[in-house]
Amino acid sequence: MARKMNVALLGYQFMGKAHSNAFRQVNRFYPDLGIEPVMKVLVGRNKDAVTSAAAEFGWEDVETNWRRAIARDDIDIVDICTPGKLHAPMAIAALKAGKHIICEKPLTNNLKEARDVLRAARGSRKKTLTAFNYRRVPAVALAKQMIAEERIGKIYHWRAVYLQDWIMDPNFPLVWRLKKSEAGSGPHGDLNAHITDLAMHLVGDIDSVVGMTEAFIKERPIPEAIDASLGASGGRSKRKGKVTVEDACLFMARFKNGALGSFEATRFAKGRRNHNRFEINGSKGSIVFNLEKMNELQYFSDDDPAHAQGFREIIVGENGAHPYLDAWWPPGHIIGWEHTFTHEIKDFLEAIEKNRKVSPDFHEGAKVQAVLEAVMDSAKTKRWTKVAKV
Ligand code: SOE
Fold first, then answer.
1. Is 26:343 a contact under the CB 8 Å cutoff?
2. For the structural domain made of 136-336+343-358+368-381, what CATH number should be given?
3. pLDDT tens digit string along 100-132?
4. What's the CA gap between 267 and 363, in Å, rounded?
5. Is the beta carbon of 164 within 6 A of some atom in ligand 1?
6. Contact (Cβ atoms closer than 8 angstroms) between residue 82 and residue 11
7. Distance set, CA 84 to CA 77, 106, 195, 196 (Å)
8. Is the pTM of this model over 0.90?
9. Nearest C-alpha to atom 9 of ligand 1 is from which residue?
């Protein structure tokens, strides 16, 4: 009989929806975890909106005060899916209340907050997870396995881009993701965070970085003003506010093991809706992953005879052979983006049940934060910058 653990989910927008779906699915496809997560309480400030989200996603109860939700004795797991500025206070409160915690990425808005979270985590026996979901794409997990099997040999290069285009219209409003006080940074914390985590997961720790940022559109319509002006100006607000984050951030890195890396995150790559791609070149082979074709992994091997060499496309869908896929469909029946969250929750619950480490925990989340911060420092000073120890 699985033991029940009650979950409080803070936030009900995009990530709240993705995590809710994962909590709902996880036992249906991984029935032997030993834990049954109970979707106990969904938390949001607006009572009507959170109530209707709870009904839609399948949560038993709602709460409009996150401190009250975290303090509840019947809550075992806190899952943080709010804008970045709330991650640190929520994670610290949940650690103090002795809960297991999942926190969306980036762990915090800056390195100081990440250190505060780590301080609060000291001595805690509870599990923490920074929700870098792309580690849980089966093709990425396969890349990790193939690197460990030494199929590509010594790694020389990491080359990654994470490209989007959703804010290219200058009339796109000044939403929270475009405010430093809310989001900490722009695509750097939002997208470079993902590819930095993947780089550290697949290649290793980063020693030093040099980066640059640019804000292409400096002012945008204020959303409240758009609402107020609906009708009068056809939904176009005249009142504008300052964009306080970058629109693009590129950086280069030296890994501690000698490999060289390049990273690019932008919201100004026309036509690239969610283009998360990396290439790794080693002494014996190369690996390429592209989220838009997430069921495939490209692999070049020196071991192939010269006349048959070339990049091959592995369809990552074999039960028994490929990570995570036993639980889903027959071989070759592909899976999607939402499955990565189910895999994440599955690994997290398994770690609680078996009392083993789950990765990336808050310490690893803070290490990503240290890299992001070094890049921002370097963009200001225009110098190579050492990544701080955490
Ligand atoms: C928006 O840029 C976003 O939703 C990110 O916040 C997610 O982490 C990424 O997976 C998709 O794009």
1. no
2. 3.30.360.10
3. 999 999 999 999 999 999 999 999 999 999 999
4. 28
5. yes
6. yes
7. 19, 7, 18, 17
8. yes
9. 191
